[in-house]
Input
Amino acid sequence: MRLGLGWLTAVILATALPAWAQPGNRLLSRDNLSQVSAHAWTIKGSPNIGIVVGSFATLVIDNGLGSKNGKIVSDIAMSLSPSTNKLYLTTTHYHAEHATGDGGFPPGTVLVRPRMQQAELEAEGQALIDLFSSRSEQDRELLKDYRYLKPDILFDSDYRLDLGGVTVRLMWLGPAHTKGDELILVEPDSVLFSGDVVQNKTGPFFYCGECTPKSWLAVVDKVAALNPKIVVPDHTPPGDASLIAQERGLMVDIQSRAMVLKAEGKSAEEAGKIVAAELQKKYAGWTGMARIAAAVEKAYADPS
Ligand SMILES: [Zn+2]
Output
């Protein structure tokens, strides 16, 4: 099914805004740079940015909202790298605060992303840019001169990059938060940049027609098999592999309760209310739990 911009707008209007879509300070800063492991760094912000530095190449993961943020990110990445390093850029998904900083990157930057994500960006990217621009003066200003670069490398499900002394694995594992979600494993450091798929105590946002609790769970199961030591989500603090188990637990709860209530003949709406109440209690203290009813409806409608 081809989903147009109308669908996207309807989702946004019908659902409480998640943390990532809330207007706030979007300008990234070197002050929030910290080292995660031998080769990996993160700039804490909205979103968190990843940087992986090897001896002859550097990978940047997500580039911020607009060219100004992209320039801040690429300057920091290059300052951490040997001056001759080649710069690679990838994005965890197509949403504006993750993927509109291309214009701030220097010529010669190699953009690599999943084929699925590129198609989704081309179809839906503008709707997100319009959404961000409509809600915040700062976002509108930052997005004014955004430009997308044409990707140099598109891959289907798996792409390995050798950065010199450190290899990274770029993976498309199926639809979860978006159809084109990418997760990135820094292999020798056992660090996973998990996008908006594995988060830290935050409820899920299903942002594509194919995104359901079942599809998200399938992705989380593949991620669990990677067994990373450190997980760095895009909008919440880093943690260890327990973040994956937590994410899985929530998704199992949503899916299994929805299926039990469906078998009992409850409507999707009734089930949504019941499961939302149960899980808001069970997961007290988590953010983004206002969308559980919508998640249950996704589980009901999942034909798979
Ligand atoms: Zn997102």
